[in-house]
UniProtKB/TrEMBL annotation:
This is Heme chaperone HemW. One of its GO terms (molecular function) is coproporphyrinogen oxidase activity. It comes from Lederbergia citri. It comes from the Bacteria. Transmembrane segments: none annotated.
């Protein structure tokens, strides 16, 4: 499998929790940015010819903050330069941003999956975390998307938000699940440096649910998803059979992908790289026909094996011993003897005949487990 990620770094508002690479849309050189992206496709594909991509993911920032014309130009450029015939083609969207005209353009160019940043079904909480959409927008956006023929729809939720109670999250989950979508992602809030929430926290003005409450919310999430027939396939991701996000599985399976756009990261021919994040630093080299690389690293075999574990253990089915042997010609139980034993003794990892995977307790302490594999 091979993929492409394309980053659109514009947002019509900045949420209080978000530290992704993004800028306030107003006054930005959006047309020039779209042209730079297309030029970047051309430069990179020239340098690294590729047979076929299995998935494309346009994320952000907010891809749907582009206007109709910009969306169409971008989609045309994608289809012209990226070798993609069939597979998963996702756009991220903010509820309320998608007009029928925009949806028609996406459909026309082969987009077949939309992931909406819903976050919560509580209008008060939405306002508190700095979102501008309201619950009504979620319903109208989903309805429009379905009208335009989209069936592979997903929503993102965040839990353990400031002031959020277990009952509140339960109500949000119920509304989300009543929609009977084929895919859901639900992340626990991370308070990231340089965000509004971080500053509030430092001043002691951010009241967050306790760790115990957060763990309760996660357990409730898993059990409600299961009751609704959704299969947990990764720490934070749930789907109906066949609707797992193939793009994200490329990351967790430690496979390769191009990263296009400001701040995007990629992994091609054993090199992990990231593009320059600030718009000017991204666009300048491209205008001279050069790649906008900020940093790159050749990945050694040892690092590759570590990443295989670090990423692969996020999947609920875990990492496969026979696949590891086939890929690296090494025995996983030898290479990672110590962390595997330690994590198994602590009841965080377990094993069946060919898979090493997280226990229920391990799912709650995932980050500790993943870290242990960085030798
Ligand atoms: C970077 S956003 C981009 C998509 C779109 N602009 C949006 O806001 O929905 C992708 C997802 O990351 C999640 N996310 C962003 N910041 C987060 C944080 N600090 N903690 C937990 N989840 C976060 C949100 O669920 C969000 O939908
Ligand atoms: C947090 S995930 C949400 C995925 C969503 N839940 C789904 O199922 O499609 C998506 C975000 O991760 C970030 N992201 C993903 N791949 C990336 C890459 N290759 N380079 C930079 N950022 C990336 C982007 O900010 C993007 O909005
Ligand atoms: S969460 Fe989405 S809309 Fe909000 S600032 Fe981040 S990228 Fe923009």
């Amino acid at each position: 499998m091979k993929s492409a990620y394309i980053h659109i770094p514009f947002c019509e508002h900045i949420c209080h929790y978000c530290d992704f690479n993004k800028v306030f849309l107003k006054g930005q050189p959006v047309d020039e940015y779209v042209q730079s992206l297309i030029k970047e496709f051309e430069i990179v594909l020239n340098e690294t010819p590729t047979q076929n991509l299995d998935t494309i993911f346009v994320g952000g920032g907010t891809p749907t903050s582009l206007n109709e014309q910009q969306l169409e130009t971008l989609c045309k450029g994608i289809r012209k330069y990226l070798p993609f015939t069939e597979g998963e083609f996702t756009f991220e969207a903010n509820p309320g941003d998608l007009s029928i005209d925009k949806l028609k353009i996406l459909a026309e160019y082969g987009v077949n999956r939309i992931s909406f940043g819903v976050q919560s079904f509580n209008n008060e909480l939405l306002a508190k975390i700095g979102r501008t959409h309201r619950v009504e927008d979620v319903y109208s956006s989903l309805e429009k998307a379905m009208q335009c023929g989209f069936t592979n729809l997903s929503i993102d939720l965040i839990y353990a938000l400031p002031g959020q109670t277990i009952d509140d999250f339960e109500a949000t989950l119920k509304e989300a699940l009543d929609l009977q979508l084929p895919h859901y992602s639900s992340y626990s809030l991370i308070v990231e440096p340089k965000t509004v929430f971080y500053n509030l926290m430092r001043k002691g003005k951010l009241i967050l649910p306790s760790e115990d409450v957060e763990a309760e919310m996660y357990k409730m999430l898993m059990s409600q998803m299961e009751t609704s027939g959704l299969n947990q396939y990764e720490i934070s991701n749930f789907s109906k059979p066949g609707y797992e996000s193939k793009h994200n599985l490329v990351y967790w399976n430690n496979e390769e992908y191009f990263g296009f756009g400001a701040g995007a990261h990629g992994y091609i021919n054993d090199i992990r790289y990231s593009n320059a994040g600030p718009l000017k630093k991204y666009m300048q080299p491209i205008s001279e026909g050069k790649r906008p690389i900020f940093d790159q690293n050749k990945i050694t075999k040892k690092e590759k094996m570590e990443e295989e574990m670090f990423l692969g253990l996020r999947k609920i089915k875990g990492v496969q011993l026979s696949h590891f042997h086939q890929k690296y010609n090494e025995n996983m139980m030898d290479v990672f003897k110590e962390p595997i034993h330690e994590m198994m003794n602590r009841g965080l990892l377990t094993m069946n005949n060919d898979f090493l995977y997280l226990t229920n307790r391990g799912k709650l302490l995932g980050n500790e487990v993943f870290q242990a594999f960085l030798l």
